[in-house]
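Problem: given the chain below (143 residues), write out its structure.
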Amino acid sequence: MKKLITFILTITFSFAVNAQTDNIDKFIEELNNNQLYGTCNYVWVLKMDSSSADSLVNIGKSVSNRLIPFLDSSDKGIIIHCVLSRIWIKEISITTSFENFEEKEIVEYNYNRLPFYEKDGIMIADEKTLSDNKKKWIEIINK
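Solution.
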């Protein structure tokens, strides 16, 4: 009887682990930098409009190594940085600049040392910035 219960628990645990792995893949696939937007809540802030990002934050640090490969993605790198920041960093640091807004319609951000900008509602970071940021996160996570 003990062997049967142990077998059933092992199978159940395996299915649960596989289901969470599938969910993590689904959450990552659904992420996109354009799920971020700036808004004014007494001060200018950056918001995430993504239930997938929220789910990854709730899973916590165990998902970090699965996110690292996407940090240099032009489509997902910024939001992945924001997710990791919410998981790993207690105090979020954000600065914004509207210096180029009138002339170029650009809002510049620096979110936990990742500089990027928003133009026409699209979040953009250059390739080198994303690559350097990926290296920083690898160091943070592997400490």
